[in-house]
């Protein structure tokens, strides 16, 4: 009976009243959607980094930069997700920026990995890999014991990394967009309440 009455009450509400109730509930509930999407983006970003670094030359300076960038994305992403969970506008904008960074990462190590691998294959897979400084031993080494879970192909690794980064960028940006919209709605609602209290006094 209570459920039926609640439904009838909701049906009698105008769209404006129903919208206000939804915003009112935001004061007591966290932004779980942005939180979940952000964590999904974080997981895919880390996975993409794994695919890239597993086939990259560990002695290359770009590898060090890539590792540091992954650490920064991990820490700043986690902090931004926690802020967006509390309807923080800054945290939500930060998620959008992190998503843009993930999108830009496509044109760095994954693309280099694909290009260098194809050059190496076209040259007949020479044992001297100095002209191909980005390739790691897991790709050009003949010792199959080093690689038991990924195909020995830079193209495969690069494409999988690109797919993960595209998905991570989409999740981060979508999480940030939802956070921005909800943050603005909640801020506007709280400001209207404060104005009514001041006007009432």
Annotation keywords:
201 residues, mainly alpha, 8 helices, rod-shaped
Oligomer: single chain
Segments where pLDDT lies below 50 for 5+ residues? Answer: 1-18
For the largest beta-sheet, the strand count, sense and barrel status come to:
none
Write down the secondary-structure element order.
HHHHHHHH
Give the amount of beta strand, in percent.
Answer: under 5%
Alpha-beta classification = mainly alpha
Which radius of gyration do the C-alpha atoms yield? 24 Å
Shape: rod-shaped
Question: How many extended strands?
Answer: 0
Assign a percent range to the helix content. Answer: over 70%
User: Number of helix segments?
Assistant: 8
Mean pLDDT: 82
* N- to C-terminal distance: 40 Å
Task: Give a concise summary.
The protein is an all-alpha fold.
Task: Describe this structure as you would to a colleague.
It contains eight helices and no strands. With 201 residues, it is an all-alpha fold. Helix 4 runs antiparallel to helix 5 (89-104). The model is unreliable at 1-18 (pLDDT under 50).
Question: Layout of helices and strands, plus pairs?
Answer:
Blueprint: H1 2-12, H2 15-26, H3 32-55, H4 61-85, H5 89-104, H6 109-122, H7 137-140, H8 154-200
């Amino acid at each position: 009976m209570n459920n039926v009455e609640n439904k009838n009450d909701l049906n009698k509400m105008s769209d404006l009243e129903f919208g206000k109730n939804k915003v009112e509930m935001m004061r007591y509930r966290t932004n779980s959607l942005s939180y979940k999407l952000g964590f999904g983006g974080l997981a895919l970003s880390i996975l993409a980094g794994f695919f890239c670094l597993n086939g990259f030359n560990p002695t290359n300076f770009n590898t060090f930069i890539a590792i540091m960038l992954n650490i920064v994305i991990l820490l700043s992403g986690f902090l931004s997700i926690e802020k967006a969970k509390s309807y923080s506008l800054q945290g939500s904008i930060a998620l959008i920026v992190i998503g843009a960074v993930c999108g830009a990462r496509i044109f760095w190590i994954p693309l280099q990995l694909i290009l260098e691998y194809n050059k190496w294959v076209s040259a007949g897979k020479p044992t001297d890999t100095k002209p191909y400084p980005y390739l790691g031993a897991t790709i050009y080494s003949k010792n199959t014991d080093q690689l038991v879970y990924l195909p020995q192909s830079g193209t495969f690794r690069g494409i999988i990394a690109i797919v993960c980064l595209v998905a991570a960028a989409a999740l981060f940006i979508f999480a940030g967009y939802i956070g921005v919209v909800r943050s603005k709605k909640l801020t506007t609602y709280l400001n209207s309440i404060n104005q009514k209290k001041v006007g009432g006094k």
